[in-house]
Specification:
With 442 residues, the chain is an alpha+beta fold. It has helices at residues 14-62, 66-69, 145-154, 259-283, 288-303, 334-343, 345-353, 359-371, 377-434, 437-441; strands at residues 72-76, 82-86, 93-101, 107-109, 123-129, 135-139, 159-165, 170-176, 191-197, 208-211, 216-220, 223-227, 231-232, 239-243, 251-257, 321-323, 330-332. A five-stranded antiparallel sheet has the order 1-15-3-11-12, with no helix packed on it.
């Protein structure tokens, strides 16, 4: 850049003049920046809108099955011996359970070693749990008891290994990660460990069984049941039994509807829907067509009848979820919902779970069209807006170069002016000094 004299000769504030001229030239850039920021804000707001719509979609996905929308409670008459939980698809009733035997995992223990650094004879351990393929573990020359423990734990064998140090000896303990044994089989089927030694130094593990695998044995309403685990999920539909202790007296499990939990689920759905409505309304100023289209589609779905629903409960309004005039939001009438739950809870579930026509399917599909991360309406709209941001950036860069060139030109022109005036002043001074004194005074 040329040297600026800053009006030292002309007396003009040329630096300020150039600054003001450049400021005028930059105004189009400022307008482009403002428009670019507005588009970036729209992209961000669409992301927030998508997040709200995805939250609503998650709630609807939970409602795609009866267990997701309805709720039941399960209580035990002896929680110390038997716990129970119930999902929404459990059947109400009272069941009597007697626990004869708990499931337990097989354990094996080695002979005593001096400590965890005691050397184990080289060879292999083949470990098979239930019907899994055997896992082979290689014991290298010089491996210690701790090394063997670590190799077992790092393997794919369904067992856990630990060292028990009594102070007078260290033992390798190997416990199956699965309790019980194959139903219809014998305890010896649970864990099979084969030791093969090829080395001549160190001590062999000599693993022996210290706890025999056993299956849970219990009865439900007099019917005998055997399972490999104490957490039983497949005997009573929708009910998980947690066997804790043997019992000779029957333990009662009472399963009943839990309207409070259903209420909480529908309140959460209502909040998610209303948050989406608010977000769509806020987006109308920036993304008018997109927001209005989504809002119209959702409003239609929540007010329309569901094909395949129970005749007395065909839409959300019939179960107590009313669309509010003017706001388009949902409001839950708890009294009405309680009546529906007391009368026919399955009818409520059908509004959401009916295949293809239930709200979980129809509204979920509508939301997916907007929020899909690859071809969703919001994603494609954001992509188009990002292209606009890039175009603005290119225009701004072009303008910046033009403004810089303009500023450089102004500096050169004013510098030439100052230089010319300086030369003229110098010439005038030389001319004056060359004139006779009398002529200058005359």
């Amino acid at each position: 850049m040329a040297v600026q004299f800053g009006g030292l000769v002309s007396g003009l504030d040329t630096n300020n003049m150039i600054s003001q001229l450049v400021k005028l030239e930059r105004q189009p850039i400022n307008r482009l920046r403002t428009r670019q920021r507005a588009v970036e804000t729209e992209i961000s707001n669409l992301g927030k809108l998508s997040s709200k719509m995805k939250d609503l979609a998650t709630k609807l996905e939970d409602f795609s099955e009866t267990a997701g929308i309805l709720a039941n409670s399960a209580t035990s008459s002896n929680e110390d011996a038997l716990g129970a939980t119930a999902s929404g698809d459990a059947s109400s009733g009272i069941y009597k359970v007697v626990i004869d035997k708990l499931a337990q995992a097989e354990k094996n223990r080695s002979q005593a070693f001096g400590d965890s650094l005691g050397q184990v004879t080289a060879g292999t351990l083949d470990i098979a749990v239930f019907d899994e393929d055997p896992v082979s573990i290689t014991i290298e020359e010089g491996d210690t008891l701790a090394d063997v423990r670590d190799k077992i734990n790092a393997s794919d064998a369904s067992v856990g290994a630990s060292i028990i140090d009594t102070g007078s000896g260290a033992y390798l303990s190997v416990t199956a990660q699965k309790s019980g044994h194959t139903v219809g089989g014998t305890p010896s089927d649970a864990v099979v460990i084969t030791e093969t030694y090829t080395g001549t130094t160190g001590a062999q593990l000599g693993l022996t069984e210290t706890q025999t695998a056993s299956n849970a044995q219990f009865s439900v309403d007099g019917l005998a049941v055997e399972r490999t685990t104490n957490q039983v999920t497949d005997v009573l539909q929708g009910v998980t039994l947690d066997l804790k202790a043997e019992s000779t007296d029957p333990i009662e499990i009472a399963v009943a509807p839990d309207p409070e939990k259903v209420m909480e689920k529908l309140e959460a759905f209502t909040e998610a829907y209303n948050a989406t409505v608010d977000a769509l309304k806020s987006a109308q100023e920036e993304s008018g067509a997109l927001a209005r289209g989504a809002l119209s589609e959702l409003s239609t779905l929540v007010s329309s009848a569901v094909t395949g629903a129970a005749s007395d409960f065909v839409n959300l309004s019939s179960i107590g979820l009313e669309t509010q005039w003017g706001t388009g939001k949902l409001e839950l009438d708890k009294s009405k919902l309680e009546e529906v739950l007391a009368q026919d809870p399955s009818a409520l579930a059908k509004l959401f779970t009916t295949t293809d026509t239930g709200l979980s399917a129809t509204m979920g599909s509508a939301l997916e069209r907007y929020t899909d991360g690859y071809e969703g309406i919001i994603k494609t709209t954001q992509d188009g807006l990002r292209d606009r941001v890039d175009r603005f950036e290119n225009q701004i860069e072009d303008r910046e170069r033009a403004v810089q060139a303009y500023e450089d030109r102004m500096v050169r022109q004013f510098t030439r002016l100052e230089t010319l005036m300086n030369e003229m002043n110098a010439e005038s001074a030389r001319f004056a000094s060359a004139m006779p004194m009398g002529m200058m005074m005359g």
